[in-house]
Amino acid sequence: MLKSTVAKDKKKGSGRPWRENIEAIAVSVIVIVLFKYFVLEAYKIPTGSMQPTLMGWDDGKGGGVFDRVVVDKLSYRFRDPRRWEIAVFRYPLDTAKNFIKRLVGMPGEHLKIENGDLWTRQSEAEAWVILRRPQRLQDVHFKHLETQGAWRQKGTWTEGEDGLVAEGPGSARFPRTRSAVVDRYTDGYQGDLIHAVKPKPGGSGRNKVGDLRVETNVSASSECTQVRLELLDGPYTYALEIPGPAAEDGSSAQVQVSDAKGQWGQDKLSLDSPLSLGGDELRIQFQNLDDLVEVRVDGELLFSLEVPPVARHQMSHSGVQLITRGGGARFDELTISRDIYYTDDQKVTSWKIPDDCYVALGDNTQDSSDGRDWTLLGYKLDDGRELWGNQRSRENPLFAPGEVGGSKVFFRDHLGEQHVFMQDRALPLPPKPMSFVPRNLVRGRAIAVVWPAWSSSYGLSRFQWCR
Fold first, then answer.
1. Which pTM value belongs to this model?
2. Which residue in the list 14, 28, 61, 101 is annotated as catalytic?
3. How far apart are the first and last CA of the chain?
4. Is the pLDDT of residue 110 over 90?
5. What would the pLDDT profile of 152-187 be if each residue is shown by its tens digit?
6. Is the pLDDT reported for residue 33 higher than 60?
7. Same structural domain for residues 123 and 178?
8. Are residues 56 and 76 in the same domain?
9. SS3 298
10. Do 122 and 32 fall into the same domain?
11. Contact at 8 Å (CB) between 307 and 236?
12. What is the pLDDT of residue 4?
């Protein structure tokens, strides 16, 4: 009797590891599914609408660069999305698909694109106000320009891989061969992508850009009396003047502004703290962005001035000019950048946003399917039903000609369901814009690019936080 009981206990105990393993696997699967559904999920960037911030580029040869981002799906369960966040949402015209864009328009406000910038107001009774981005986003949207060999020089200058050296008094102006900086499609791309990525036909370099940044380490020779950096913005010029080692006693750094007629004002605006080139080199950041001129030295904001907007017809020229007086100077780690230029040649560029909706735009403004051109196409069938779906050339709808009773129509509606009907049994409805992303379709915010960490084919690192 005792032996039988022991044998049964051994047999019973020998089966427990299998059951425990199955239970552990089941619990793990449930936890993973819940974690993916409610907390974090990996997402592959499918298209180039957010380039170069997020890459979804197909080289047409079976390769390319496709970022994988981690999406935070938990935060939006406790708070609403915020302006400038990169959000993943269900595509309003086909909710079976996920899109990723930057949220630029908030619920209940008016929004418009004008002269490459975004403007907002709360009601028609208010004046339009330009939208200004935080510093972290400015660094993302400023696109580094290729400046090698692109300086128009007066005097003796030496151009290195990362800067310019003035051997004596002189000037250097960028760009050399054009009157203005333009919105080239490949501006801002990293590594070899700048030569590999091809622009959309007819969409590159059509707009003159006045929102520029010059950043450099400046040091002056003992004979130099002044170093001057100029930002050219249509009829206006903004000049940062920094005394050199040979400057007269009492000289101070200042910003000088020309008026719309090109006349320099008599009043010069002093910086908030003393600044000169008598000692070590200075890290200078001088920019004109969203009608705000700013000067930063070694990362500290020393000057800020609101300036007039420049309309497109006023943008005769733009660029950067470096001037040395009395002697030479070095401009090391020199970069010139331009701001993103929001194009306004799409179907819709002004919105009154409903209370529970957002406007989302792609950072690749020249080649992004977003709230500027989303359009719903509709059909009324002979049974009285109305079908609405995404209007995409050569994608939706599709037609099979030659059928009895006309062409057969293959139409995907806004829920992602496929419908097939004869063309002569459906009445086309007038297309209507569908520019907004409803709150209930927003799934989460992108927080980091986690793959590929390094692309050896194009010499660039992609691991980064999403800003």
1. 0.86
2. 101
3. 73
4. yes
5. 999 999 998 899 999 999 999 999 988 999 999 999
6. no
7. no
8. yes
9. coil
10. no
11. yes
12. 45
User: What is the residue-wise DSSP string for 128-149?
Assistant: PEE----HHHHHHH-EE---TT
The string over 224-244, giving b where at least 16 C-beta atoms fall within 10 Å of a residue's C-beta and e elsewhere, is: bbbbbbbbbbbbbbbbbbbbb
Number of domains in the chain: 4
**Who contacts 358 (Cβ-Cβ below 8 Å, separation ≥6)?**
81, 87, 103, 105, 106, 107, 436, 437, 439, 442
Whole-angstrom Cα distance, residue 55 to residue 315? 31
455 located within any domain = yes
Q: Which of 434, 384, 428 is nearest to 409 (CA)?
A: 428
Residue 34, domain extent: 2-38
Catalytic status, residue 222: no
28 noted as active-site residue: no
Tokens of 146: 């290729």
Phi, psi of 390, rounded to the nearest 5 degrees: -70, 125
Asked, for residue 451, whether it belongs to a domain, the answer is yes
Strands 329-338, 164-166: pairing is antiparallel
Q: Tell me, yes or no, whether 207 lies in a domain.
A: yes
Amino acid at 119: W
Q: Give the Cα separation of 405 and 422 in Å (integer).
A: 7
- Give the chain's largest Cα–Cα span: 113
Hunting for tokens 């600044």 — which residue is that? 275
Average of per-residue pLDDT values in the chain: 86
Q: Which of 49, 337, 368, 455 is catalytic?
A: 49
Same-domain check for residues 204 and 307: yes
**For 227-275, what is each residue's pLDDT tens digit?**
999 999 999 999 999 999 998 888 888 899 987 666 666 557 777 667 7
Do 201 and 308 lie in a common domain? yes
**Are β-strands 418-422 and 408-412 bridged in parallel, bridged antiparallel, or unpaired?**
antiparallel
Tell me, what's the pLDDT at 294? 95
CA distance 361 to 340: 12
